[in-house]
# Entry
Amino acid sequence: MARSFDVVVIGGGAAGLMCALTAGQRGRRVLLVEHANRVGKKILMSGGGRCNFTNTGTSPANYLSANPHFCKSALARYTPADFIAMVERHGIAYHEKELGQLFCDESSKLIVRMLVDECSAAGVDIQTGCSVESVSQGDGGFQLRTSIGSVSSPSLVVASGGLSIPSMGATGFGYQLAQQFGHQLLPTRAGLVPLTLSGKHQQRFADLSGLSLPVQARCGKQSFRNFMLVTHRGISGPAILQISSYWQAGDDLRLDLLPGEDALAWLLEQQRQRPAAELKTVLAEALPKRFAQRLCEVWLPNRPIRQFNQPQLREVASLLQAFPLVASGTEGYRTAEVTLGGVDTDGISSSTLQSKNVPGLFFIGEVVDVTGWLGGYNFQWAWASGHAAGQAV
# Structure
């Protein structure tokens, strides 16, 4: 005999937990199933174990989607202030790190505990280590065969996430379910991910691994100013993770190595003040010393700065402000923080997250084609989309 619920939520991540507690608070009998041995695994590892749980500056402009308007409704109805209110109600201390990013003072475990406590108070039944073997639809709604037995429900919420970080249990299950019920998928790829270099490009940087510097990374019309980190295999750091969501193989990627500076004016001033200094010495004032040396070994002539005429200094300035970075690929889903693409929003209501062609079926969080920037935006989409569905189931 199948156990029956008002709502079944597949996936115990940020969006699934939010949806479950919201529906439970409305008096719904909710079952949340999670195939891993605990809920909130990505929450636990996020923000270096401190969980960057939202961003106070969240707006629709911080998201990538084939339909940039889709996220507006849910984000407007559940704001960062709404989530902060819950955090404060549970007495969780937090701080703003930079650019509106809020982190726990202590541990991301507190956010998971808060969500589980809210689910518990709302009577949500959470089952971990529970795999879904099949889903079908009949007169009574949805029938699920799971490792804990058969379950039925008129409402089914798919919150199973994307493909990023398979070591945390990520699978394509949500995408398969979407296709089973006639939904279109947009191509998926790794987002917020380090970029790899190869051949001579990699060789030129390999021994600078661990070196960090502020840059403005540009790809097409998009740019991000933050730190870049040189790695054994390529480049990472916040500026690179951000631009990686916009970059695809073959795209032109440029770095401004002196962000916020007029490089030519700065070089002319250096030439006036210290004409005898070599270019690598001058550049080491503004860049890490080893990085400045490498620029002068490979890309720039190194000689006393007085020996450069203005056209030559203009060439140096051009390279510093639009340094060409030839990436060969990304580190892939293994280290990606998010998955771009996914369930096409054309088939989903933007206000309720319900399927337009299968009543009672909902898609929330990362499984949907809505991807946030680095800095708490993906969690805010999880909270907002989970809340919107939780109000509608």
Remarks:
- The first helix runs from residue 14 to 25.
- Residues 195-330 form a domain with the Elongation Factor Tu (Ef-tu); domain 3 fold (CATH 2.40.30.10).
- The mean pLDDT is 97.
- The CA atoms of residues 53 and 376 lie 5 Å apart.
